[in-house]
Protein 1
Amino acid sequence: MIYVIAKLPCHEEGASKLADWAKGEDGFSVTRSHKGFKHIELLVGENNKTCWLYEQWETKEDHQAYLGFRMDNGFEDFMKEILEDEFSLSYLTNSGA
């Protein structure tokens, strides 16, 4: 299993739009239907602007296929609208500790 953490530095209105999108019909319900999906959470920082996506996927390739699907279907434009800086994406594995 792979863990994915995405840091999304949104403007305040952008963080709210991201939360609304996640709850909507094109949001996490679509994410949950993709091959290899295990878990997703949207976390919001104390500043009500910075958001983190915490995800679990079977493989990195499953997540990258999903991300490609999203980018091909308008999510990149949505991200440009809500972000005030570049987003970052990290892939992690459990150390077993």
Note: The chain has one domain: 2-92.
Protein 2
Amino acid sequence: MAQTKTSTSAFIAVIHTAAHQYRITKSINGKYFAIPKVLTISDALELPLNEFKSLFDQAGTEEIFGSLTAPIAADSEIWGAGVTYQRSRDARKEESGIPDVYQLVYEADRPELFFKATARRTVGTNSNVGIRADALTSVPEPEVAIIINKYRELIGLTICNDMTSRNIEGENPLYLSQAKIYHGSNAVGPMIRPIWEINDYTALSIEAKIERGTNIVWQAQTSLAQLNRSFTDLIEYLFRCQSFPVGAILSTGTGIVPPLDISLQAGDVVTINVEEVGELVNKVVTTPININELENLWAM
């Protein structure tokens, strides 16, 4: 796996504290520091980039303590983009009984954009992701996610594991929401690398692997240089006829797709590494069909 530059870099981290479920901080060398005037990612994304950067630069004296969680807020929206790499286009055509639709969207001016998750459906690093109990085949989709403020400005980069029930989407593209939006279907993290900390994000390497016990059953790599669309283009389309008062997180699509003979199993561990951004690690569990009833029982 690529070496991740984290030893002296500053990151935007979100931690769970006794007082706050999603407290935004500045992370330096494993320590977390309060950022003046902002408590959550949503607070930060309500500010212009230059104003937030100024507050971020001031942080570093008031240390706070908590456990790292997904870099989101309670009211965050996570969106996804599809078929943005040639490998993704080819994989979708292999899986689908209606392959032409993926070729058309790959070549179209308008990208495929879809709502992916709320905070309740999103986990951070070292947490469990799910595979649907009613899916025959499921795969991770390793992606770079971009953090965008309400002014359409790019704030930073993080990693997203856009879990997907491959056979469900393959049966019919109209099943995409069921294939991609369910309990345990989204992981984001570990932290956000501020965009001003990255000299050139356009060719960052992306690597992923699936471990099953002591064996690596699949691994692959790509880079953002293979992305078929620019971040600017994706942001422009995302904000068309939409309002994001607390910004948005947009996962920009995958250029790494396991072959058809690979499917996730409960107990697998998925690791995604993005150069200069970090490493997202998640164990796989099965999401039961009756998760709603089970959650209600746990809450009683």
Note: The two ends are 43 Å apart (CA to CA).
Protein 3
Amino acid sequence: MPRFVLIGLCEPNSDDVQEQFNEWFVNQHIEDTAKCPNFIRGSVFKLSGPHVNIDTPAGYLSLYEVEAESYEEAERILNEWQRDPDAWEGRKKHMETGQKFESMPMRANGSGWYELIKYFDGPKAGAEQPSAVGARAE
């Protein structure tokens, strides 16, 4: 089955909402989205520094690995999943957290589906993945 990644380039609206961003996006939204039935994994990364002096469009990168026949199918399943208030046990808390803020504590600078066409393992392939359990949102 084809494999895709869905990426999101985002950041808090301002320094004033960093805690809200961490609570809703980093600590809840990534997990909530990753629970979608055809998703393999969801991750969020915080920008550590530029590469080759190119502008970086966002302070955070969300990355979801997904199996689907097409990106359209993946998008359809994700949209249905996100509309279902009972999709999983954590959905209610996630929705309540989002509603307690006056507005969304983030802005998206870009997002898109990318189909895997080829990959190469590096020397660390198969090494234990870092655990997000207990990870602290900065």
Note: Strands lie at 3-12, 39-46, 60-67, 106-115.
